[in-house]
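Training component of the fellowship. As part of building independent skills, the fellow (R.M.) carried out the full modelling exercise for a liganded target. The chosen ligand was S-adenosyl-L-homocysteine. The inputs are recorded below so that the supervisory panel can assess the work.
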Amino acid sequence: MFDKLLYIETFGCQMNVNDSERIVSMLADLGYAPTNEAAAADMILLNTCSVRGGAEEKVYRRLANLRIYKRDGKQQIIAVGGCVAQQEGEELLRKLPYLDLVIGTHNLHLLPDMVRCAERGERRSETSFIDNEQRLDLFPSIKGESRLSRFVTVMQGCDNFCSYCIVPYVRGREISRRSADILAEVRQLADEGVREVILLGQNVNSYGLKSADEPSFAGLIRQVAEVAGIERVRFTTSHPKDMSDELIACFADVPKLSGQIHLPAQSGSDAVLKLMGRGYTRDSYLDRVRKLKAIRPDLVFTGDIIVGFPGETDADFEQTLSLMEEVRYIDLFSFVYSPRPGTKAAELNDDLTKAVKMARLDRLMELQRRHTREICHTYVGSVMSVLVEGEGRLVGQVSGKADNGRIVNFTGDCSLIGTFVNVTITKAYPNSLLGELSN
Ligand code: SAH
Ligand code: SF4
Ligand code: F3S
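Fellow's submitted model of the complex:
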């Protein structure tokens, strides 16, 4: 029985999106139904990200706004979870007197108890890391979701310590889930009608490397693809240094593996990659890309790039643009470098001016817009297999994802939802494609 309302705002990456689904599922057992209206909610939770400084400040601003609802005299619980919660811990409770609850990235299983405490007016912060196998057994599951495409966590945390990145500090040590548990979850999802799974982790392709009893990530993909009812398998994020030949081979002979891969390069300059501690060179990255393209010519690439890393010269930046020309990403997430407390790069001399950084970002984004436009235009006239996932943007339209991850809208009946159909592409937009159902 639902007798209360829960409002969640999620920032950051897919781990947080997935954790928010866990939170909704756990709190449903306490009688909380999700709502889109903060003012009406009995509990407000911000699931936060601290990967860049701006994201963190956004959370503080957002909390400052949300406390207005509390001041209205309403008995409302205000909670912070995710990576800012992990980073700041109890300090947040001290700084923000209207905050009731702070929950870290390894402590989600404690949330129901903490909410009961908050309902009685007790303020609590739980942010201790559980950096051992026990974490796997405490991991709350998700119930009551009805989407056709679902995340399946295969590993948590990160041990790479790229010099700029805060994730290893806020998500803890890398742990792979047991393959038996992953497969049981995938089978369960298939039984519930899920057709596509997205294998999730900060560095999925290092899956199982620490354990002799578990398959490699390539082996895991093959097992997941064998589950009856699952028609498509995706994964995110993979690290170029762990992109093995065995994994590349999956793109040739696992037909269910999607035609899109997220392979963040971060920079095209060897000098910058070295300072970033990424563990690969420009050449070895491009070698992986070439091998993937040779094995699956229609594969599309997405990636992440950081501009303005400390010491990045004009020549380094040109190398990044030329890497983009070679790869031709269909979509790219680009960020201006932001120093994070406690990371190695934060000690480097960040001498570039804001104007230089912004000018580089603008040039990079301009090039990316051209690549996105050019690649998507080549799709016009082609036929794509689309998993229809819901209603489209316009009345009478349905919408789904093509094998390469592009969103496709087309005129069609809602009875198509849940099925794979062939769609002829008629028009390309920057973020989606328009098509017609083909016979
Ligand atoms: N595990 C993923 C990345 C997770 S963070 C990977 O290694 O690919 C998502 C992206 O944020 C990173 O790929 C990087 O491009 C960006 N990022 C991380 N730290 C940053 C920082 N300090 N400043 C700017 N961008 C950053
Ligand atoms: Fe951060 Fe590097 Fe780990 Fe990605 S691989 S989460 S960029 S430390
Ligand atoms: Fe942000 Fe935490 Fe993800 S810092 S990118 S939400 S792991």
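The panel noted the following from the submitted structure. Residues 12-13, 15-16, 49-51, 82-83, 166-167, 170-171 surround FE3-S4 cluster (ligand 3) (CB under 6 Å). The CA atoms of residues 157 and 173 lie 5 Å apart.
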